[in-house]
Design brief:
mainly alpha; 6 helices; 3 strands; 7% strand; binds zinc ion
């Protein structure tokens, strides 16, 4: 690209692959399944990932959906600290159950549709594989967004993805 050309103005919030999966992780089927499960588990626990899944023990930037706190947690910490601890300064533990219940939603109603059945998940994984093969960066990004983007139905999605890889 000619460096003097203006960037497309529509892309005011450029999104990179790292928004869904950390750059050091290859989007293999097993890495995608682990990341989808991690997004599902953290979402169900009232966390909203702000960056791509970095692996189990790497700092992961997140927002607490119960109080709005933002900061780094590791996936291991989220798994191990439940159900007794979230982060310093969160709302009282007695209010967590009610707050979490309000966050639960039945299905995907997102603008970018997320797969919630094994065959849909398999299609997206195949799309990611193909996009990598032909060097289609936009296609790869869209595939990662469908598989790993925040979604109220992320638990269904992780389950569907696990089923599709059997
Ligand atoms: Zn909190
Ligand atoms: Zn969704």
């Amino acid at each position: 690209m000619n460096p003097t050309e203006p960037q497309p103005s529509a892309v005011s919030h450029p999104v990179s692959r790292a928004a869904y999966l950390a750059d050091h992780l290859e989007p293999t089927q097993s890495a995608l399944a682990e990341a989808a499960q991690a997004v599902a588990t953290t979402t169900a626990a009232g966390w909203h990932p702000l960056t791509g899944y970095p692996g189990r023990d790497e700092p992961w930037q997140m927002r607490c959906l119960l109080c709005g706190w933002e900061g780094p947690r590791t996936y291991s910490q989220v798994l191990c600290s439940l159900p007794n601890f979230r982060h310093p300064g969160c709302i009282p533990q007695s209010q967590w159950t009610d707050k979490l219940a309000q966050l639960v939603s039945a299905g995907c109603r997102c603008v970018i549709a997320h797969p919630t059945t094994p065959s849909e998940a398999a299609d997206v994984v195949e799309g990611i594989r193909y996009a990598r093969q032909v060097g289609d960066g936009t296609g790869l990004l869209l595939g990662l967004a469908r598989l790993l983007g925040p979604c109220p139905a992320s638990a269904n999605r992780a389950h569907a993805l696990a089923q599709s890889s059997r």
